[in-house]
Amino acid sequence: MSTKTGPQRYPSASRANWYQDDFGGDPMQVNVVVLHTTEGSTLPGYGGGSSAPNLTAVPDLAAKKLKWYQHFDVETSSRALVNLAGGVETNTMNVCQVELVGTCDPKTHAKWKSAGRAHVYWPDAPDWALREIARFLAWMHEEHGVPLSGPKAWPAYPSSYANGGGQRMSGAKWTAFKGVCGHMHVPENVHGDPGALDFARILKYAKADLDVDDDTPGTTTPAVPAFPGRKYFVAGASNAYVLQLGKQLVKRGFGDHYKVGPSRNWGEADRLNVRDFQKSRKELRGDADGMPGPLTWRLLFS
Asked: What's the domain of life for this entry (predicted)?
């Protein structure tokens, strides 16, 4: 069974429509975010939660912000994807699912616009809405290590329906995928949402929030590498991020607890060295537990 790590509730998200107590779900180590559109203009009922995602973002057009509702923990499987028997895993494959209230269908958009029905047409979403999605993805990157990358093809609806744009992943690609994608990219699902979402702009905003290299020609690599997520610094962890952290601790003069030197294996010496660094910074002294989080990482590498 997977162990959940890091914060499970998106800051300020409402739990007024919380479904985890009724539908349970499996714990996961999330490394994928799937974006949906609801094809409606208000918060859905989701059949009482039987088809709910982890979170729903409802546009507040007057305030120019998204109001977030959380239905399941970030690292608990939700229920918004089709999962056929005998195929690949979808809902339970390390996926945090987000529904964006609005439409990606140009015909629906035209109909609602003609009727004066306020809504967001996501292929032409206002800049503030894209920035709000970017802020969520930046949080998922910092707190859970979800890569700020994804498919290049985001075909417009209705071409995207039933893989009309050739965008849907094979089972093998889906199983290996890490990052951000749309409902239309997930195998075993025929839906075409969120259509031609400006994914490149969302990623650009998310990376700007974190001061992460956006791979644009002419940009420079930032001085501070992105925090990979708390799950890489737990008992039994062995990875390149532990070694990277250890080398930086030694470089900053906080390697006293290493008997030989930093390694790829997270251990008590790493935790004690991190704790020493945290005690040296007034911003971190109140929570000097030796467990690296986004702020500890950023200050250590600054």
From this structure: Bacteria
